[in-house]
Amino acid sequence: MSGLPREVIKWLQSLDLTHPIRNVRRDFSNGYLLAEIVGWYYPQDIQMHSFSNGTSIQTKLGNWQQLERFFIKEQLDIAKDVIEGTIHCKPGAAFSLLERMYTLLTHKVLHYLPAKGCPTDFSDSSYQSQLPLHARSTTAQSIKNNLANTELTTKPDRTLSTQKAQAIMEAHVKQRKQDRENHPEHFGIRTSTNGKKTLPKANARDVDKQDETIKEIEVEQRLKPTMS
After folding, report:
1. Largest CA distance in the chain
2. In Å, how far from its chain's centre is CA 223?
3. CA spacing 20 to 30 A to 129: which of 72, 142, 143, 206?
4. How confident is the model at residue 49 (pLDDT cuts 50, 70, 90)?
5. What span, in angstroms and rounded, lies between the C-alpha atoms of 66 and 51?
6. Where are the alpha helices (DSSP H) in the chain?
């Protein structure tokens, strides 16, 4: 449970859940453990026999549909993107969910500062920023890391999925451009006497094109298995 505030960890341990929490992202994605937690506070409303501790996307959606109806009934404000991020095991989503549930169920305030650079978009951007430049994801890998197969399964809309992939690609290209500005020596960028920065001829011709043309190749390959 590394990464959770100490108060939340102690709270979870005090609930004596039926299954140990080994991986927060994975263990909370199907909603079963969250149903257990909520059941401690609303035993008359949460019937665990109606929840399944499975891993299929159908099981996850079934559990979460019940939880969302309960949230609406009890006016528990849980953001939709947090729920979807948790279902699809997005970085940081399950942590945000647990922190929110802690404050709603215990009526206590968390006294801590969010980690610097903590992603609010539930992407792996924070992790990537900690890696050396040569080890960071390519555009294709970034799409693979941040667009889960389960998202394509639960929302098989080609336009929406393409928009998600496009947004991931644009964020990646933006970060690469920022990397070039911050670390010109890594990309072989030279500064001329008039102060203008130039890439070597091979890079100037290919580097920017590499990021943009991925859309027609890797994005289509990423979407084709589900969309066809």
Report:
1. 76
2. 18
3. 206
4. very high
5. 8
6. 6-14, 24-27, 32-41, 57-73, 80-87, 93-106, 125-129, 139-146, 149-154, 158-182, 201-214, 220-227
Domain limits, the chain: 6-106, 131-227
CB of 52 within 8 A of CB of 45? no
Amino acid at the residue 64 = W
Fold of 6-106: Actin-binding Protein, T-fimbrin; domain 1 (1.10.418)
3-state secondary structure of 216: helix
User: Closest Cα to residue 220, out of 136, 134, 143, 151?
Assistant: 143
Q: How many CB atoms lie within 10 A of CB 131?
A: 11
The closest of 81, 96, 88, 105 to 30, measured between CA atoms, is: 88
pLDDT tens, residue by residue, 194-223: 666 555 544 444 444 444 544 554 455 455
| Tokens representing residue 129 in the block | 């920023």
168-172 LR contacts (CB < 8 Å, sep 24+): 168/123, 168/142, 168/143, 169/139, 169/142, 169/143, 169/211, 169/214, 169/215, 169/219, 171/123, 171/125, 171/142, 172/137, 172/139, 172/142, 172/143, 172/211
pTM score of the predicted model: 0.61
